[in-house]
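Reminder: ligand-aware prediction takes two inputs, not one.
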Amino acid sequence: EAALLEEYRHVEARTRDGIRIEVSANLGSPEEAEEALAWGAEGVGLFRTEFLFMEREELPSEEEQYIAYRRVAEIFGERPVIVRTLDVGGDKDLPGIDRPAEENPFLGWRGIRMSLDLPDLFRTQLRAVLRAAAHGNLKVMFPMVTGVEEVRAAKAHLEECRRELEEEGTSCGPLEVGVMVETPAAAILAAELAREVSFFSIGTNDLIQYTLAADRGNELLRHLYRADHPAVLELVRLTCEAAKKEGIWVGACGEAAGDPDMIPHLIRLGVTELSMSPPSIPRAKRVISRL
Ligand code: PEP
Ligand code: MG
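Here is what comes back for the chain with phosphoenolpyruvate:
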């Protein structure tokens, strides 16, 4: 089995009827980048940035973040690397950020909500990403979006950061902006959101839990937590339909993106990029090649 999959590592995956699907890696830190390439990653569909904030009291500086993002950008070269802005909260608590206890952390202060409430923190990260973008093919995406105002506000910060850096004479790279579709609201409003961004990435882990009101980590609800639930598939369909109308692409980066049973559903609905944990890449490419 392992030997059979070996030959799929470095193929460009295409369905039998010729649809090209980009297969990318989810990264939790820069240390994982080389190995992801070796598994056959064609890019990074989700670079989680929480690692910079974990197991430490002080927040990472712009310079430290810049070095980390630049490192992955350089390792991947021409290939796209999608940096996701900070998404703490929910199941991820971080010591450097002072936060009140919440009764429902998954429905609480996390992702883009927190970033917009803490502009210094957010802008430090955006400046680092803009600078790193001069060294590779970086894109940025925002997590936990529920409406168009959040996206406009986030983009306004990004543009101001770019202006600041340019005034300081610091070079920035071009930076496409995307949003994660991981709340039912984002999927329902996909037509509106699609006018604001260059791509969508469906975060199935959260989209499933919020759609089905089933905590992603609760073992008692395993049977309810299903990526192929018709309500989840309908939201994926809506997202892809809206994206197509607006001419933007849709990726998926939750666990379902690497699941051989879910890949056919995602592709038939219009997803053209799948991002997953690197060891899942060869199998996903084989599944696609046989579709
Ligand atoms: C998701 O929600 O599907 C996702 C990829 O983001 P995270 O698992 O980091 O919440
Ligand atoms: Mg998520």
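The beta strands are 22-27, 44-47, 80-84, 137-142, 176-181, 199-202, 249-252, 273-276. The chain has twelve helices and eight strands. We will return to this case in the review session.
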